[in-house]
């Protein structure tokens, strides 16, 4: 029974966190037009 209560509390906390982040919204910012270039190290 305790496990069910703990799982319910955890689920409610996670849902509250998701709703809070959704309500606040994404931080303002810009995306770059340039793609990110990565290099793969060459093997000798």
Automatic annotation (TrEMBL):
Q: Which InterPro entries match?
A: SPW_0924-like
Superkingdom classification of source: Bacteria
Q: Which NCBIfam families match?
A: small_SPW0924
Name of the protein this chain belongs to: SPW_0924 family protein
């Amino acid at each position: 029974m305790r496990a069910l209560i703990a799982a319910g509390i955890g689920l409610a906390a996670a849902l509250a966190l998701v709703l809070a982040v959704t309500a606040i919204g994404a931080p303002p910012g810009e995306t770059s037009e340039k793609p990110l270039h990565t290099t793969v190290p060459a093997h000798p």
